[in-house]
Amino acid sequence: MRIHVAGENSLIVYFSDKASPEVAAEVQQAFYAIRSAMGDKLIDAIPSFASLLVLFDALQTDHIAVRKLIRQALEAKSEQSIQSGKLVELPVYYGEECGPDLQRISELSQLSIDEIINIHQAMEYRVYAIGFAPGFAYLGEVDTRIATPRLTTPRKQVAKGSVAIADQQTAVYPAASPGGWNIIGRCPTSMFDKTQQPTMPVDVGDRVRFYAVDRDSFLDMGGAL
User: Fold this and answer.
1) Which residue, among 97, 96, 94, 98, has the nearest Cα to 120 in the 3D structure?
2) Which residue from 168, 152, 162 is spatially nearest to 102, judged by alpha carbons?
3) List of domains in the chain
4) Is the CB of residue 218 less than 8 Å from the CB of residue 188?
5) Which of 90, 157, 211, 212 has the greatest number of beta carbons closer than 10 A?
């Protein structure tokens, strides 16, 4: 673990140089421990793949004191503080109607489209980070058999709810936007709604499973084609 100054009122804690489910769990444990230890001195704690950004109230404390608090919190965290994250199940309408890259992944992987769909929904993914856009959750890790590089030329528009793969990560686009990931289906669940609390169905450290639904079920759940 390394702690570095990230700004005039922030420190960043690095747990590893490489993301993994184990590191993601460690980041989440640290998030809860530091939040509890710092109380009202904490402005925000932002977890990522293998690090945690800690923003503090500079009117109440300073870098030296916060660094000490972070170390104490991480040393004191017990088994009771460990949280594995909730399991979130997301429906997906897989198919070439809304998964234009399935055929290309099939050709690259030498797997049938049905095999790709089965492999994708068989995995349990960890939410490594939230970024790029509100509600865009980076999920890992995708089975190496269907891991596929990003598109050489990103699309100008990807539909809201698109389920996609890029290398060993998968994600659901929370809103229509440009994007270069490989699209394999569409999810009817809203990944970000500022009028709801919580605004997102997933948080860093949560676990996600996808399950296939047919076209009619997708539309009944509020999905759009």
Assistant:
1) 94
2) 162
3) 2-81 (3.30.1360.40), 87-220 (2.40.100.10)
4) yes
5) 90
